[in-house]
Write a structure and sequence with these properties.
single chain; 244 residues; alpha+beta; ten-stranded antiparallel sheet; two-stranded antiparallel sheet; 3 helices; 16 strands; 13% helix; elongated
């Protein structure tokens, strides 16, 4: 049986009902825009690139193996900063990564102990560039930030946050995804704040502060085009990841 076409007023009401649900959930975020250019200063936000430390800082290792410097964020650059980053001037993420074959992106190794490390600094004073102890296959990128005010949770993290019936009617529209993207942000790459965007398993929002995406421009990927999420709960850092 041919599906009956909705009249415009009914369609408008379906969209309005669902958007009213989403409007209750929107959060601000700082979206990372990667630039294939040199950092202006060593403390600048970057993906790969130059990482800094104190005079006596040593590059983090997992046993005798140096970790990969993945992400450095200078928090004063952020147009939106979540409370988890209060009193932090600079945060860095390091991971154990496999050296890829030619043409393949850098990927973290998840099957070892202590596979990631987080470093934070309360001030930028006295920080200086550190020398990477090993060759990297990351393509260094400086980061510029853009603020959005309308980040929304996505499936399955939106379960229980929006009315199921209103959502089902909205997703019955042929162009629901395009319509939603026009009005809201659900950034799938690197960002600070907003909502984490999982690939299939769902990612907890409690304590979430930074999402680290698969970044083609930096030659970096979590599994198959996945994401990782950095949490801070009771001053303890944890990292979760999800991929297709």
């Amino acid at each position: 049986m041919k599906k009956r076409k909705l009249d415009q007023s009914t369609r408008d009401q379906i969209v309005a009902d669902h958007f009213a649900e989403l409007d209750r959930c929107v959060l601000p975020a700082s979206i990372a825009i990667l630039k294939r250019s040199k950092q202006l200063t060593p403390t600048e936000s970057c993906f790969g690139g130059v990482f800094v430390g104190r005079k006596d800082s040593e590059w983090p290792h997992q046993y005798s193996r140096p970790l990969e410097g993945v992400l450095q964020i200078r928090t004063k650059d952020l147009p939106y900063r979540p409370k988890q980053l209060d009193k932090i001037a600079l945060i860095q993420l390091f991971c154990v990564c496999d050296r890829p074959d030619k043409g393949f992106p850098v990927m973290p190794s998840f099957d070892v102990d202590n596979w990631f490390a987080v470093r934070t600094f309360a001030t930028l004073r006295g920080l200086r560039p550190m020398i990477r102890p090993a060759r990297t296959n990351l393509k260094p990128c400086r980061i510029e930030w853009k603020k959005v005010e309308n980040e929304i949770p996505t499936y399955p993290d939106d379960i229980g946050l929006v009315d199921d019936e209103k959502q089902a009617r909205f997703r019955g529209l042929e162009d629901w995804a395009k319509t939603e993207r026009k009005h809201y942000s659900a950034h799938e790459r690197t960002k600070v704040g907003g909502w984490p965007v999982s690939c299939q398993n769902g990612l907890n929002h409690r304590g979430y502060c930074v999402q680290i995406g698969s970044e083609e421009k930096a030659n970096f990927m979590w599994g198959h085009d996945g994401v990782a999420v950095l949490y801070r709960v009771r001053n303890k850092w944890s990292l979760d990841w999800d991929c297709f």
